[in-house]
Structure formats: C-alpha cells, structure tokens
C-alpha cells in the first residue's frame, strides 16, 4: 500500500501534460474553422462549364493541427438546389509509393524515385443534411452519426452522411489517402434544405504542420467535373484542382477571425508554392514513357545550380520560409534495396 501511494504521488507530481502529442499551434490559423462564402453567408454551388470557371470557383485554405484529442477541420453549409451537387476536395499535395523492385513492372517504372513524404496531408470529406450534423461550427468537430434504438433497447450507431459515397475495395464507403483528392456527388439535393460539409483533418504535413487544400462546390455530378478537368484516372484526379499547396506565410495576428481563405485562382496564385503546379502536371501525366525521375532529377539539378540544397522535413529557418529550396521529390539516398538479400 505504501509503495502504491508513493507511485501515485510521483505521477501526480510530474506535471505531465501530454502536449508533445499534438502539433504546435500557429497563431492566426485555427484547427477548427467555419468557412463562409466570399462576402459572408452560406455557399452557393457554382455553375461550372469551363476550366476558367473551375479556377474561379476554387477556394484555397489552410488548417492547423488539432490541439486536442478531438478532430480538427473546417465546416461550411449550403442550401440544396433540388439537383445534384458535387463537392471536390484536394489536400496538399501529391504522394506515391516508391517502386523498389529490381525489375519493376512497366506500370511502376514511373514511381522509381521517392516521394517527399513530409509535405503531404490528408483531409476526409463528409457531408449530409445539417440537421444530422453533431458538431458545433467553428467550435467542435462532429459527424453525421445518430443513435437508433433496436427492439431490444440497444443503441445502434447509424451514419446518415451522404458523403463519402465512393465504394472501397471491400464494398464500404471509402475516403482517399494522404494527399489524394476526395470528391462526392450529393444526388438530388432537397431544395431549400441546409446541408453541412465537413473537411475533417486526418494528418497535417510534417514539414510545417499547416495543411492547405483546394475546394470546389459545383452544380452537377462530379464525373462532369472530372471530365472538365481532363481526368480519366485516379492519378489524373490530382489535376482537377491545381495549386492547393500554399506557402505557409505568417498570418497578420493571433486572432483567428483575421484568417480568411482565398477565393479563386487569381486571389491565390501569388501564394502558391513555386513549381507545385508543374509537379502536379508531371504527376498526372499517364504517358507510359513518362517518368517522375525526369522531373525529380531536373528539380535536384536546378536546386544545385542555384547553390542550394533540397529541404524536406522543414522549410523554415530563422522564421523565413525557404520556398527556393523546397523539393517535391524525396531524398534518393532513402531508397531501400529491392528484393530479398
């Protein structure tokens, strides 16, 4: 008993907070945020028929890492139109698994150069009728799960979310992985009824703990948006929205009310990482003879010729963002040996 008491006293006296489990907060960048349309209020799905209209309708924003054991993310609302509505979300930036086989298949030859894993984040897209959303916009992230009581009196959780609705490998609703776009069509939305959309933070990039993203809310089916963006494969989905990798610039103050996203390509273009659009274009190229190695080797040569070195796990020194040294491809020295030894 005496030993147990001493042990408990030691635990209570160590002032353990667990802060190391969470990413550092960024002044001015909230981990839970309520998005509003430009000028305020609810979002209105855009009519998009051209690439220029797609770029103009894209919202570019950032999310900070969650500061509690709860989820972080952003929410917004729109009113149903009676027609289909597409939600398209693309988190920073793009990722692939390196092919390390000594004799890779032709399909894997493109990916024999390592990716920079430090600049990629992941956001899960959920949406449904606002009446089912359990969170508090701008305060607490929730979900669309409600409790149903069966005939035996047991509470059975049931998700009433309309998104995700993309079928996964084993038949369940799937969400995309790190750096991958997520999109969802809410079919035949109820006219005049409010819908809530949740961009739930799953992971923030390791290099700066600031997750940027591109977002589009459009009238119609998402397959029409894919076609407009020139996408025919999951790989090419990365280029429907471009430029979602934003430079983590210092914000004006530690007041989260001062943080606003950029509405449209014209507003965001000056804040997009140099070469990120070119990187995405190369990533989306499905030409069988095309290799990421070509882009990656050129990237390293350009950095070396400028007398600089690639930065991967950090982008900030002495409070300055080194955009000229950011490399989207990884360190080739980290490549493991292929095959059994």
Explain how this protein is built.
It is a single chain. This protein has 341 residues and is of the alpha+beta class. It has a single domain, classed as Jelly Rolls, CATH 2.60.120.380. The protein has six helices and 15 strands. The strands form five sheets. A five-stranded antiparallel sheet has the order 10-4-12-2-13. The chain has a four-stranded mixed sheet with strand order 1-3-11-5, with no helix packed on it. The protein starts with a helix and ends in a 20-residue tail after the last strand. The model has no long low-confidence stretch (mean pLDDT 87).
Key attributes of the depicted protein:
341 residues; alpha+beta; Jelly Rolls; 5-stranded antiparallel beta sheet; 4-stranded mixed beta sheet; 6 helices; 22% strand; globular
Secondary structure tally: strands: 15
CATH class: Mainly Beta
Main pleated-sheet profile: 5 strands, antiparallel
Which overall shape is indicated by the principal axes computed on the Cα atoms? Answer: globular
Which structural class should the secondary elements be placed in? alpha+beta
Average pLDDT, rounded to a whole number, is 87
Low-confidence stretches: none
């Amino acid at each position: 008993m005496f030993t147990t008491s001493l042990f408990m006293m030691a635990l209570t006296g160590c002032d353990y907070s667990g802060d190391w489990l969470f990413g550092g907060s960024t002044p001015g960048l909230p981990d839970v945020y309520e998005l509003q349309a430009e000028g305020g209020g609810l979002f209105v799905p855009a009519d998009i028929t051209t690439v220029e209209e797609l770029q103009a309708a894209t919202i570019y924003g950032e999310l900070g890492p969650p500061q509690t054991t709860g989820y972080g993310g952003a929410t917004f609302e729109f009113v149903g139109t009676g027609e289909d509505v597409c939600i398209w979300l693309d988190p920073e930036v793009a990722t692939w698994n390196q092919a390390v086989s000594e004799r890779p298949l032709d399909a894997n030859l493109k990916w024999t150069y390592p990716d920079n894993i430090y600049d990629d984040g992941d956001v899960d897209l959920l949406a449904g009728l606002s009446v089912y959303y359990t969170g508090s916009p701008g305060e607490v992230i929730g979900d669309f799960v409600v409790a149903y009581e069966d005939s035996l009196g047991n509470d059975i959780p049931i998700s009433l979310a309309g998104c995700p609705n993309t079928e996964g490998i084993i038949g369940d609703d799937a969400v995309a992985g790190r750096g991958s776009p997520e999109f969802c069509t809410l079919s035949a939305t109820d006219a005049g009824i409010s819908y809530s959309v949740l961009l739930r933070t799953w992971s923030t990039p390791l290099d700066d703990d600031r997750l940027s993203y591109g977002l589009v809310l459009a009238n119609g089916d998402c397959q029409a948006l894919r076609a407009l963006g020139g996408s025919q494969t999951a790989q090419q989905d990365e280029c429907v929205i471009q430029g979602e990798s934003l430079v983590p610039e210092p914000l004006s103050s530690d007041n989260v009310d001062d943080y606003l996203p950029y509405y449209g390509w014209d507003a965001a273009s000056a804040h997009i990482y140099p070469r990120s659009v070119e990187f995405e274009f190369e990533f989306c190229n499905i030409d069988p003879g095309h290799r990421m190695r070509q882009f990656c080797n050129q990237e390293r040569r350009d950095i070396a010729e400028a007398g600089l070195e690639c930065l991967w796990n950090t982008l900030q020194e002495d409070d300055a963002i080194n955009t000229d040294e950011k490399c989207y491809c990884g360190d080739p020295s980290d490549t493991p040996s292929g095959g059994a030894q």
